[in-house]
Automatic annotation (TrEMBL):
Gene Ontology BP annotations: transition metal ion transport
Alphabetic keyword roster: Cell membrane, Membrane, Transmembrane, Transmembrane helix, Transport
Subcellular location: Cell membrane
Topology term for the membrane: Multi-pass membrane protein
Sequence intervals crossing the membrane: 12-32, 38-60, 72-95, 101-118, 139-155, 167-190
GO cellular component annotations of the record: plasma membrane
Name recorded for this polypeptide: Cobalamin biosynthesis protein CbiM
Amino acid sequence: MHIEIGIISPEKLAYAGVAATALLGAHTMGLLKSPTAWLRTALAAFFFSLLMQAWHLPVGPSELHLVGAMPVYLLFGFIPTLFGFGLGLLVQALVFEPQDLTHLAINFLSLAVPLLTVHHTLGKKMQGISVANVLKLDAVYYAGVTLMVGFWLSISNDAAPVADWALFAASYVSLVAIEPLLTIALVALVGHLRGSRWLAACIDEGLLRRAAPAALSAAA
């Protein structure tokens, strides 16, 4: 979901920076009022960065990554994941790819806007964690990421934005198919470890309530 450096004008990058700052600012109080959210944000950033660095592949003017968005969201919660994305992208840019600092805002928004959509349409309403629910979350989230990449390409100076977006979308399908397996495995593990004090500090309370060992059934 990284966008190639140089294809988006500085003016549009500035607008993206304002939007990203406003989005984080609107959720800052939710982070500050909960000390456990700070720990979960650090954990979210760590696992997100680990997965991003574990596998990435350039595809046209963008790049495929193993994001791990839904495992991170379900394990650590909405606000830690939101800030974890920002922190993880910042650390990766500083340590591995300094040139990515230019596109920090648009790369963040590519992940954050779909996360907002998932959280407010499906995540808040989800009563239990089942295989069907995990598949729905992943489908909506990665459809959103794909659309965000298409949006950035549409306002860029890329010579063939539609063709490049189609290539990215087609390439993403195989990668997205892997993530539900990771999500299901991690949530099932948390369900079996319920009752641990250290786990209660690290994992989102909502997941701990819903992640009983029998929760991951094939039914919705």
